[in-house]
Structure formats: C-alpha cells, structure tokens
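Case study 2.
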Amino acid sequence: MTKRVLVIVAHADDMEFMAGGTIAKMAGLGYEIREVIATNNERGTLDPTWDARFTAETRREEARRGATVLGVDPGVEFLGYEDGRLTETPLNELRER
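Prediction:
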C-alpha cells in the first residue's frame, strides 16, 4: 500500500521553508507526496516595478522546481486565491476545493 501525503500551504515557498527536510525524507522513503498552494503569490515581492502576473508565474515555476528537488510530484495544484487575502475566504469554500 502506497503511503500518501498531501501538503497544503498558503504560499509557494512555505513547504520548502517549513517542512523541506521532513518532506524530502518522506519522499526518500517512498511516500507519494502532492502539494496544494492556496494563493497566486502575486505579492511575493516588495519591488513595486514587478508585474503581478509575472511575479505569480515566477513563483509557480519556483514551486514546481522546489517540489521536484524535494521529491514531490511537480504537478503542484494552485487554488488561485489572491495573495494576502486568504483569511477573508470562507473556510467552507476552502474545504470544498
């Protein structure tokens, strides 16, 4: 029986920073690991000259690469909520997703 782990985080780099070592170890032990990222990460920089869409796409690509490095399925699922507004989303809506 395959052991599965679902990692649900708000931002593209949360998994790597908060649980990267544990996730890599689990992947090395044969766990099937998937990642779900709730926000678009469009506010992932303080640089006011950056385009939000470009920033969001850059963060998505970084998330895919980070997942691959840790041994996580690179098919990261992005829920698309606005960065910085996740707490305004009804919990039932998040659960249904």
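The longest strand covers residues 32-39.
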